[in-house]
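Q: Fold this one first, please.
A: Sequence and structure below.
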Amino acid sequence: MKIAFAFCSFKNGASPRQINQAIQQKVQKLNIEAQYFQLSDGGENTAASLSNKSSSFKGWDALQRPIEYNIAFINDIPIIEMAQTVGIEKLSKDELNPFVTTSYGFGEATKQFLSYSDIYLTVGGSATVDFGFGFLKGLGCIFLDQNDNEVYFNVVKDIIQIQKIIIPDNHPNITVLCDVKNMLTGETGAVRVFGPQKGLQSSDFEIFDKISTHVKMIINKEEQQGDGAAGGIVYVLRNLFNAKIVSGAEFVLEAQNFEDKTQGYDILFTGEGQLDSQSSFGKACQVVCQKFQGKKIGIFGQIKTNVDFLDAIFSCQKGIKSLDEALKTCSEDVSDVVYNIINVLLM
């Protein structure tokens, strides 16, 4: 039996590499032929899935506190990961507040590479809903009001004062690895779908909807699928910098030659921390299933919905545990479920 394993990270619990290692150790004596892939979709661990070469830098998190982060390189092209700088995992639940969090640190990290001819930006896993304006400030952009006076942008509400944006004269060719297909505005947009997980209350939707409409007025371009990713930053990157937007999951899988290596394979195991309503909007587990011809089995920490791209869905939860307890053992728990399923299939 030929089996492929392609797991995303279980946020705050285990990376794809750690899950693969746990599974490999568990199934090594079973009569299977296995291949292991690191799955990511533009969120956390994307850079690590693409390259082992990285350098450490100092910068700022979403609350503008000093941090250290890594930038990976593939063929000498930097891969700047939003989750490494202003990622949601760097903040506690109590610290999540889109009225004050900013993507500034991601922009400042990118600014260091403006002299390069090409850069990759991965934009998943952010803690922000500032429509990329913090990023623009960090990059060195200038904001003007209707009288051409400079606007000093600090928090998301300041966007309402902005009428013009002046970007740097020279910038690299930008390829954005995007993890979702959501639009910028509307019921499936950046505010209503992703805002709540970043600390936004439903009572805040109206003001953020107003800001997103103002952003569209400033830039004056039609929105496209994916523009709602990472708090709306993709809309800004696409239209101000002519960035090329690609599926993060497809990019990562292509880099690992997934389709060729899994030709003729019988089963794919995939999964991540949570299966929810966002999972069918271009997330990595959906993409990898679309590229696999055999049976697809999903293993998740939490299951909040059903999906049609998996043939079977399992939870890795064992008994009643707190979230912290579950995260500590998720690699082992996933590998146990995998082992038990394969044993049944081999009977």
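Q: Good. Now the second chain.
A: Here it is, same layout.
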Amino acid sequence: MKSEDNDNIRKFNITTEIIKQINPYDFTPINIKTIRKFCYLGLLQAKYRPRCWKILLGYFSSNKFKSSLYYKKQRQAYKSYLNDIENTETSYYDVLVNDVTRTFIEPVLFYKKETCAFLDTKHKNSNLTHRSKIIRILKCFVLHNKSVGYIQGMVMLLIPIYKVFITSDDSEDTLYAEEDAFYCFNYLMLNLYENFLSYIDNEQNLKILMCNVWDILNKVDPVLYTCCVKKSIHESPIFLKWLFFLFSTEFKTEEVIWLWDRLLSDSNRFNILNFCIVAVFRNLRTTILNDSYEQIMYSMQNISLLDIKSIFYDGETIRLSLCTLEE
């Protein structure tokens, strides 16, 4: 009981420290390492998530007492970006609009027409739906990142960020959810830039990304790895989608947000992803060892049936075990 009490006291003290750090009116300086540890350990409460995510995604002022001025300038700049997209046409716009239009994260039937309980509701401070706001964010991103453009599925990397802000208890977060989500998404894409360029241009780089995962699996479960090779599963790029889109295309948004608390705060940014992918293979071990290629592919296309928390914790255990062996 005493150990549990000490643990609760420790969590309370860490939480109190983080609240001070993310409060723009408190003198406690921001310590990104502390905030990352706080989020990675799963101590982040929903009401503090918007501010912590802004910090984890590089959207904050280095001088916390100038935060109001910093955000004011960024949000004003975004308005000029909106004017730019009204006066610019690019082939990517059609691709992204079609992709966002087909996206239903919470599908429901309304007068026999499929709609989305979240995306197709209106922003409370605007006549636009969340879907329309997301289209505008992506158009602004494409206009200022023409080397990457838009790749099908990118919308799923934006939705968790936007939803964290638009569902915040803080009125400022909801009022400027579109603007803030744009900058956070832009920063996230900078971190994923090389992966997406590989996706576009370089088959050799794709093979390297795949080999990183297979090397880990071979170290922790050589029997399963050998089976994957024999059944030609190792030639399938199916898990690259999990890697590129941070599992956002596979699980419910709330589950993705839970996972991203940890992915965004990983000190080796997104390194844990490879281990989570290996954890998926190990969760499907019985299927892979005993079933046909077609059945295995079906299971890999439906990993939403797995528990996202188990995948993460198993992945973390795998990473720690390999680090211990290498030491």
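Q: Anything worth noting on the second one?
A: The radius of gyration is 21 Å.
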